[in-house]
């Protein structure tokens, strides 16, 4: 049950229960009253129970609310104990700008970012979306200290540390997958290839693989949003080479198809300016990323 709940919303319910007032809870937590009401409603929807009786003046716990309050107190206590047990990151501070592919960040780094924010509250981590060339240029120009790129940079002046081999897959409409099963390569005649643009390594690899197979796409279409690419493929407008994790759910639900072709994995790694001494905050972020991916294998 608690894995479905949002921590801030649980804390809101706990404070409302103690203050017996939406307005006093809003004042104590620094929210507007509509936010407090929204948090309470979201928790009630998640647990499927009414937690408060709404009175002319204030609120009162229902039987279910009293039970929920007991567990929310335990939740709050565990949070305080966890904060005390974790090694202190208070002494490390600074601003670190990390340039990273959107698809990599959203599928592999969300839990990691949460852990960084909790353990190192004085490190201000700024994320910038960027492809290989964007990221390397930013590093060379001093606009960011660290980057995560797909493939090994050919540009000089940056150090590269491999992190993880990413499984790639040809993503197609379900109709094209069925045609492929019947017709083979002929199903790809005059196909449109969808990608993030010529600056993206994924699209460059896709072009190379098609060329080696003797396939000439009718055209290339550029989209800068992963979600837009998925929707475009769903309606039959083309195919794309993407990391499997970004489309795993849609493939399993048969909302998107895929071609069972052998596609090389693509190394993703960390880059920073060659010869530069990184700040303590940047070294901390780099080491966390290295440790995170040290034992990870692309098993999907």
TrEMBL record:
It comes from Paenibacillus alvei TS-15. InterPro entries: LysR_HTH_N, LysR_subst-bd, WH-like_DNA-bd_sf, WH_DNA-bd_sf. Coiled coil: none annotated. The keyword Transferase does not apply. Belongs to the LysR transcriptional regulatory family. Keywords: DNA-binding, Transcription, Transcription regulation. One of its GO terms (molecular function) is transcription cis-regulatory region binding. The keyword DNA-binding applies. Transmembrane segments: none annotated. This is LysR family transcriptional regulator. Residues 5-62 form the HTH lysR-type domain. It comes from the Bacteria.
């Amino acid at each position: 049950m608690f894995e479905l709940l949002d921590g801030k919303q649980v804390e809101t319910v706990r404070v409302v229960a103690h203050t017996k007032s939406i307005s006093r809870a809003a004042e104590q937590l620094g929210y507007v009253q509509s936010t407090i009401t929204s948090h309470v409603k979201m928790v009630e929807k998640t647990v499927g129970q009414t937690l408060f009786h709404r009175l002319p003046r204030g609120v009162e716990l229902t039987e279910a609310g009293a039970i929920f309050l007991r567990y929310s107190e335990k939740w709050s206590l565990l949070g305080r104990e966890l904060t005390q047990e974790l090694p202190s990151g208070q002494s490390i501070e600074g601003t670190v700008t990390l340039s990273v592919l959107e698809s990599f960040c959203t599928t592999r780094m969300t839990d990691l970012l949460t852990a960084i924010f909790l353990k190192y509250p004085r490190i201000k981590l700024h994320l910038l979306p960027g492809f290989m060339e964007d990221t390397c240029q930013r590093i060379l120009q001093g606009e960011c200290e660290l980057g995560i790129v797909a493939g090994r940079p050919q540009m000089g002046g940056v150090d590269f540390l491999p992190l993880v081999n990413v499984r790639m897959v040809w993503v197609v409409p379900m109709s094209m997958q069925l045609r492929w099963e019947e017709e083979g390569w002929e199903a790809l005649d005059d196909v449109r290839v969808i990608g993030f643009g010529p600056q993206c390594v994924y699209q460059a690899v896709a072009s190379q693989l098609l060329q080696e197979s003797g396939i000439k796409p009718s055209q290339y279409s550029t989209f800068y949003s992963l979600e837009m690419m998925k929707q475009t493929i769903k309606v039959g407008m083309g195919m794309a080479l993407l990391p499997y994790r970004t489309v795993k759910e849609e493939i399993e639900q048969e909302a998107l198809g895929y071609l069972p072709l052998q596609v090389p994995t693509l190394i993703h790694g960390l880059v920073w300016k060659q010869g530069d001494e990184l700040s303590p905050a940047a070294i901390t972020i780099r080491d966390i990323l290295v440790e995170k991916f040290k034992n990870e294998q692309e098993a999907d």
